[in-house]
Each structure stands twice: as structure tokens, then as C-alpha cells.
Amino acid sequence: MDPQYNEKGLVPAIAQDARTGEVLMLAWMNAEAWRKTLETRDAYFWSRERKELWRKGATSGNTLKVEEVRLDCDTDAILLKVIPAGPACHTGERSCFFNRVIGEGRNLSNGFLSHLEDVIADRKINPDEGSYTSALFREGLNKISQKVGEEATETIVAALGQSDDRVVSEVADLLYHTLVLLAARGLTLADVEAELERRHA
Asked: Where are the chain's structural domains?
């Protein structure tokens, strides 16, 4: 099934984080962008300003790996469920939709955990010589698992006799290393959330 293009041969495409559900960006596709996206599972769009095809992240490295493609009921809009490598917006924001007009928005800590997960995933794919996260991936799952155990122990010690600030610091370390462990196993926060939802049902 192909989308219905407008009079200019274009159709709007919304990119949504496949793990968190967050809407990341809106761009336009023509028939070629549609075809290349389906063939490569990388997000391709048509630039109305430059009048050319472009692959998201071709210059910035902030690619969108396509997990699922849907068309709306009229087949005149596309939904791409993607795994982002880095921020989706050219401004450096995680999502292009950061200008809040009304409403309280999502929980900020949950939003940062998703951002941190993206950074960790990027360090796994694109190692950085000076990155602690990349060093953990180089040392492998045994080292990462050891660090999770150490941080869990330090969290318990802090909880039983240290300050609130220390507890928060140790939990932050534990959460970070747990995210690295998940990434090392090819798992995500969304997998953990799905398990929690299953247990709650």
C-alpha cells in the first residue's frame, strides 16, 4: 500500500520514538523518499527548501532507524516509528516539538532518561575514545554487570545510613549503569515498562 500524495507529489511524515511514543519531528516525503525508507529502514525525506532528497542524519549522525511504518485512515499521512540516534531536531533538542503552548507536559525526569538512553545507544554504535560509556561497552557485559552490582550495593549502603543527597547520587549511578546493561543486551526501557505493565494488568 502506498500513500496518497498531494498535488506537489508530497505527503507529511511524522517520526515517533518507537520506545517512548514521543513525537520527534514532521517532514515531507515524495515517492522516492517513501521507497528508500522502506528499502533501507533509514528515514528519508524530501526537502521542500532545497528541492532534494535527504537521509536524516546523513551529516549530523542523528539518524532515525525505522522500526515500523503506518498510514493513516485516508493514506495521506505517514507515521514512522523510529529509534533515534541522538536528537531529532536541528536545534539539538530531542524533539522538534519543544515549544509548549499550553499544558504541563511530560515528566522531566522520564524525558531525560529517554534522552540518556539515546546517548548510551549512540555510544554503543559510534564509540568515542574519551567516553566512559564507550569504555564500558569495550570491556563487555561482565564488566558492565559488575558495575551494576557495585552500584546496587552502594545504593543499599547509602539508604541505610547516609544522607538523602548521597542516596540520590547512588541511585543515579545505578540507573545509568542499568541503562548501559540493557543496551549491551539489546534491550530498552520500553521492554522494562512493558513488563511492568504486564504485571500490573
From this structure: 11-84, 108-200
Provide φ and ψ at 15, rounded to 5°: -100, 125
DSSP the chain: --PPP-TTS-EEEEEEETTT--EEEEEEE-HHHHHHHHHHSB-EEEETTTTEEEETTTTTS--EEEEEEEE-TTS-SEEEEEEESS-SSTTS-SSS-----SS--S-HHHHHHHHHHHHHHHHHHS--TT-HHHHHHHH-HHHHHHHHHHHHHHHHHHHHHS-HHHHHHHHHHHHHHHHHHHHHTT--HHHHHHHHHHHH-
pLDDT at 105: 52
Q: What is the mean pLDDT of residues 146-162?
A: 97
Q: How confident is the model at residue 107 (pLDDT cuts 50, 70, 90)?
A: very low
Threshold 0.70, pTM exceeds: no
Fold held by 108-200: Helix Hairpins (1.10.287)
The values of phi and psi at residue 78, to 5°, are -115, 140
What's the confidence (pLDDT) of residue 171? Answer: 97
**Mean pLDDT confidence for 145-171:** 97
Mean pLDDT of 46-53: 96
Q: Domain spanning 11-84 has what CATH number? A: 3.10.20.810
